[in-house]
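Slack export, channel: ligand-projects

TW: morning all. Re-posting the request from yesterday since it got buried. We need the structure predicted with the small molecule present, not the apo form. The ligand is 2-acetamido-2-deoxy-beta-D-glucopyranose; the SMILES is in the block with the sequence. No rush, but it would help planning for next week.
GE: picking it up
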Amino acid sequence: MLWFSFFFLVVQFVSASTSNQWSDMVEKHSWVGIPAGWRHEAAAPASHVFNIKIGLKQQGIEELIENLMEISDPTHVRYAQHLSREEANAFMAPHPDSIVAVDEWLEFHGIDPSSAQRSRAGDWITVTVSVEQAEKMLGTKYDVYKHGSSGERVVRTLSYSLPQQLHAHIDVVSPTTYFSTLKTMQDINTLETDRRPLNDEVTRALPGTAAAVPSTCNTMITPTCLRDLYNTSSYVPSAVGSNQIGIAGYLDQFANFADLQTFFKAFRKDAVGSSFTIIQVNGGGNDQTDPGIQANTDIQYSTGIVFPTQNIFYSTGGSPPFTPDSQNPTNLNSPYLDLLTFLLGQETVPQTLLTSYGDDEQTVPFDYATKVCQILATFGSLGTTVVFTSGGSGCPFVTAVGATTSINPEVAFRSSGGGFSNYFSTPSYQKSAVSSFLANLGSINAGLFNKSGRAYPDVAAQGQGLQVILGGRTNSHQSALGFINPLIYSTASFGFNDITTGSNPGCGTAGFSAGVGWDPVTGLGTPNFLALQGLV
Ligand SMILES: *[C@@H]1O[C@H](CO)[C@@H](O)[C@H](O)[C@H]1NC(C)=O
Ligand SMILES: *[C@@H]1O[C@H](CO)[C@@H](O)[C@H](O)[C@H]1NC(C)=O
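GE: finished. pasting the full token output, ligand included:
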């Protein structure tokens, strides 16, 4: 009898400690108010079913970043010795204790851990839950918010928590407090300018004579202008068979095969007949009767420059409009995160990944920004160059591209994004360039930016007047050519045409001005590939 009550007591004790273990909630992230541009619409229906992604702490992420810095440093013996898939996966994998802890927590909330979808390295767990369940798991309340100018609706929360003991195991849970969607980003982009980066492969230009840049390039930027301006006209890609350039496509923006042929006939005759590959991710479509201007710009300028290197267009689905009465589980996550995790699950990843969508840092929760930045570091460690437009490119592991316009002289484009991150500190590779800039700047804009933050952009390229074929017609569209590599701040820093005039006014200030050397408007300048080739 005594034995029996002892057993009973133990059982009681265990179950009490188990439930305490999961009810001791500590805040993970919160906003003070509803993020700008959004308004509260209604409570999220309790029975609505959706997917949440749980990002587990990666056991070896610090080591992976150390590896990345070594293999990207041109003076290091390990330079360009990228990690294998297995090596990267081993760094990305969570600690076994993290897997156990998270599985127990899921079970406690009535979710069968074996029903969870797991990423290849085990660092992302996706589970299907009801709003009611998610609210209990995350000590939160989900609501429907509507974005003013795009009309986009999302299900998000202003704060979320995790049981105290899970903070050591989980980096981020999504969707929670990150509001932006690709649609709201695009909305902001098109109001200003769609700046577009291209690829790093052009750095291997063969020596030759740069043709005189045609004066029409002042107003109309064609692939010929870019190849002349940046000295790639005589470029012959070296590893056409194995090199690939991946272009991230979203929002049912489809790249069109016929338009590409029209574009080639007009601007790149030697490429007529060549094409690109489409990979559909996450239920992404491919409607050839409905070409998208962003998708066409990206594909036409990328192929127009790097032909005959293979281009892959990733048509990424996801984020369907939120319908409260839907009975099917919905994906309310950012398709952007889905594409990155999809690519890291593949056997091979393209050597270059281009993204035309960016976001303002202050609208991205710190935990989310850090996690995405770690994912991008992983791409770098595998040998992929990740290129972003400079609007919101505070991650130290991507190459941020600012925008220029005109020729003779080429000047900073006034809406070129540039500045300093509040989340990530100045990486060592740009310390010297940035401190020279700061020394010259003196007290201008003092107090309005963070001197110790990662500074961007890194480089710049034409961002206005690109010619895009859409539905058979030529449209003027704004975009940019990009270039990638941490070596640009050292060995290759003189391989740029320094852009010294123009500025990026904003936030009621005159912004920063372009000047001699690196600046937060045009970075090191625009690439001069022939000169770069001599330096690298
Ligand atoms: C291209 O490179 C050559 C050799 O370095 C240089 O003389 C020329 O000015 C460059 N052209 C442009 C447009 O930068
Ligand atoms: C400035 O940047 C540093 C480095 O990223 C960061 O630690 C600090 O919190 C930032 N300061 C502000 C006021 O945001």
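GE: first-pass observations. The first helix runs from residue 2 to 23. Confidence is low (pLDDT under 50) at residues 1-17, 187-211, 476-485.
TW: perfect, thank you
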